[in-house]
């Protein structure tokens, strides 16, 4: 196929055609470029004799993309094609026409092993084969890998759900939520490529370190047309310079703020107090006050009380339509007098100085950041918009203690940026994607959910998260509220319960926190156990034991994360560096993590390391209000081994 693409000859029709052909050929070659580290296929299904044509059993190889032979017949089937489905879904109980399933093991592009399940003879490994274990335990370096070779049936159900279906996946740590979400995006792009190429796919993640970690997965799957962003990226309309205190952040993330902003915006519209004279192709027409009032009222109603949110007239569009209403009215007057003004003349009238001046007076142009700044700067302005919605104490929390010299130079916070974006979304329609995937969704505030919902348009949603890992102060107790605020209240919540990442011994430890942090939420069951995976080490001094553990791990293949309370990061880096170890702190600028990385506890969510050393759990718990939730996240990052070093006693819940 590569040779055929290279040898496409340029018939030399014209320069434009040649250029297009060249671009198409380059694109095709890119899509055919093989990663030498991954095989052309990783699985095979042999059909039962009856299932094949002429009674002969059919054999399919399954791979990352389809491959044809010279005659154009398929030799490898794309994992996303309907024909590949039995590879993922067939079982001894429901063989789906598959007599034997074979999985291949590879290392550095070389075939190293294979594993068979003779489904026709009632034999299947229940998704716990050696190859799955080997794949999970393969040492990690760099970004996240795809799991196409070993997607499990419950995961596959989610990956292949129809595009129109919005899904919320509630899954314990390491159950494959992120992996499943990304594979779903790849599946949807494959299955509905034309539609999604127009509307796009958006992946929303918690921070840059996380996006960096997942960014390679989709290109590795052959999909490149996906935008990846944090909520901060999506709402970057003002320069964020500082953080809010937690109580202020909670208030600014509260959905009541949307009502306050809505009122503030639309209450800026004033009643016309006089008639207006407009000119249309050289003649002047007077429009009476009552008629002007009706124009304004009708448009305001269309902007504030539509039956369907999608039909609401945006503020800026309302302004344009008001100008057009005046011009159209003048046109009708002129026509009644026997004139026949053209569309261009009518539009010119709508842009005329008199009409502009009228619109500026009754329907003033609004700057989103300016509106939020005026609310925070002027208690009276805020009180008018917030009366009956926020208490006086709450209003007081929102006031800026020091007024900024300009809107631009204000000390905006991340929560403010979301509010500014909310206003911008009322001013003008925000372009929406055809599918939006939100990871770590348990941490979004209601106002952040609204920001994501604005990008959703008419599309569908994949929400991934774990209520037990909710560390933000506005954390929800259940998914209903989040899904409603994301604009898809009817979304079904699907649990994933098999833990792939974390060995059973480590998961058992972390699960002891669950009754306290998320009562009622089911614990995951680990697919693997390893007696050596967990070491709890009380110590009297930190420096020596830490250096010796880390230097021991540094000699192993794969990645090591030393996780500690954020404030302890410089100290831990200094201790390890003084011991001659090559370590670096992980930062949130999206740069590549070091092979041995010191990771602030608040940045570790969604990431994983072959080996994790947790330093002083009590300090991690003490650092924030939802510290036990944070500790649960921290304890569930290890693929192969977890060492816990502590001078202070472990939290009571962990003592088993
Ligand atoms: N079917 C699978 N085959 C092989 N590896 C898998 C499979 N499912 C998940 N994994 C691996 O398990 C690890 C955890 O997956 P992932 O990060 O998607 O979990 P998660 O549910 O998002 O976890 P968390 O909530 O802790 O962030 C990853 O290394 C992933 O590649």
From TrEMBL:
Q: What is this protein called?
A: AAA family ATPase
Q: Where is the UvrD-like helicase ATP-binding domain?
A: 150-503
Q: Which GO terms describe its cellular component?
A: cytosol
* Gene Ontology terms describing biological process: recombinational repair
Which range is the signal sequence, renumbered to this chain? Answer: none
Write out the entry's keywords from A to Z: ATP-binding, Helicase, Hydrolase, Nucleotide-binding
Q: Name one GO molecular function term.
A: ATP binding
Which amino acid positions bind ATP, per UniProt?
171-178
- Asked if the record carries the keyword Nucleotide-binding, the reply is yes
Q: Which organism is the protein's source?
A: Modestobacter muralis
**The organism's place on the tree of life at top rank:** Bacteria
């Amino acid at each position: 196929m590569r040779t055929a693409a290279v040898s496409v000859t340029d018939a030399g029709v014209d320069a434009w055609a040649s250029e297009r052909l060249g671009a198409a050929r380059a694109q095709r070659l890119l899509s055919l470029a093989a990663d030498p580290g991954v095989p052309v296929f990783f699985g095979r299904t042999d059909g039962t004799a009856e299932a094949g044509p002429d009674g002969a059993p059919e054999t399919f190889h399954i791979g990352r993309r389809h491959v044809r032979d010279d005659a154009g017949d398929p030799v490898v089937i794309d994992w996303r094609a309907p024909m590949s489905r039995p590879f993922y879904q067939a079982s001894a109980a429901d063989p789906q026409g598959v007599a034997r399933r074979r999985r291949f093991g590879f290392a550095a592009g070389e075939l190293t092993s294979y594993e068979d399940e003779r489904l026709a003879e009632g034999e299947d490994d229940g998704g716990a084969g050696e190859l799955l274990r080997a794949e999970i335990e393969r040492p990690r370096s760099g970004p996240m890998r795809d799991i196409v070779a070993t997607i499990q049936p419950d995961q596959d159900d989610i990956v292949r759900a129809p595009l129109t279906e919005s899904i919320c996946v509630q899954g314990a740590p390491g159950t494959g939520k992120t992996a499943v979400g990304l594979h779903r995006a790849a599946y949807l792009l494959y299955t509905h490529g034309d539609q999604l190429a127009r509307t796009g796919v958006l992946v929303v993640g918690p921070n840059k370190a996380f996006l960096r970690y997942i960014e390679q997965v989709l290109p590795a799957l052959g999909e490149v047309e996906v935008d990846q962003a944090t909520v901060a990226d999506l709402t970057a309309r003002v320069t964020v310079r500082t953080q809010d205190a937690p109580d202020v952040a909670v208030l600014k993330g509260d959905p009541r703020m949307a009502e306050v902003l809505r009122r503030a915006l639309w209450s800026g519209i004033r009643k016309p107090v006089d008639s207006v004279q407009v000119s249309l192709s050289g003649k002047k027409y007077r429009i009476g006050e009552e008629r002007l009032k009706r124009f304004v009222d009708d448009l305001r109603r269309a902007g504030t009380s539509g039956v369907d949110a999608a039909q609401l007239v945006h503020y800026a569009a309302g302004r344009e339509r008001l100008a057009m209403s005046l011009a159209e009215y003048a046109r009708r007057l002129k026509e009644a007098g026997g004139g026949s003004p053209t569309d261009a003349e009518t539009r010119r009238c709508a842009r005329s100085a008199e009409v502009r001046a009228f619109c500026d007076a009754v329907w003033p142009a609004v700057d989103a950041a300016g509106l939020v700044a005026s609310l925070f700067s002027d208690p009276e302005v805020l009180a008018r918009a917030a009366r009956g919605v926020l208490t006086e104490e709450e209003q007081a929390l929102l006031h800026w203690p020091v007024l900024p010299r300009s809107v631009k130079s204000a000390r905006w916070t991340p929560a403010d940026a979301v509010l500014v974006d909310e206003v911008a979304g009322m001013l003008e329609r925000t372009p929406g994607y055809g599918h939006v995937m939100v990871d770590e969704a348990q941490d979004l505030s209601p106002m952040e959910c609204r920001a994501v919902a604005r990008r959703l348009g008419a599309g569908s949603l994949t929400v991934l998260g774990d209520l037990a890992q909710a560390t933000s102060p506005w954390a929800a107790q259940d998914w209903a509220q989040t899904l409603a605020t994301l604009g898809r209240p009817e979304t079904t919540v699907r649990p994933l319960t098999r833990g792939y990442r974390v060995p059973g011994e480590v998961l058992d430890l972390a699960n002891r926190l669950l009754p306290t942090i998320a009562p009622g939420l089911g614990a995951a069951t680990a697919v693997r156990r390893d007696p050596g995976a967990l070491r709890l080490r009380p110590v009297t001094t930190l420096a020596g034991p830490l250096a010796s553990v880390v230097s021991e791990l540094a000699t192993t293949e794969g990645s090591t994360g030393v996780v500690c309370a954020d404030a302890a990061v410089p100290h831990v880096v200094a201790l390890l560096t003084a011991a001659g170890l090559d370590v670096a702190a992980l930062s949130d600028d999206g740069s590549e993590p070091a092979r041995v990385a010191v990771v602030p506890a608040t940045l570790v969510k969604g990431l994983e390391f072959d080996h994790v050393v947790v330093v002083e759990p009590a300090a991690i718990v003490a650092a924030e209000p939802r510290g036990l939730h944070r500790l649960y996240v921290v304890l569930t990052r290890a693929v192969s081994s977890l060492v816990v070093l502590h001078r202070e006693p472990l939290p009571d819940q962990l003592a088993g």
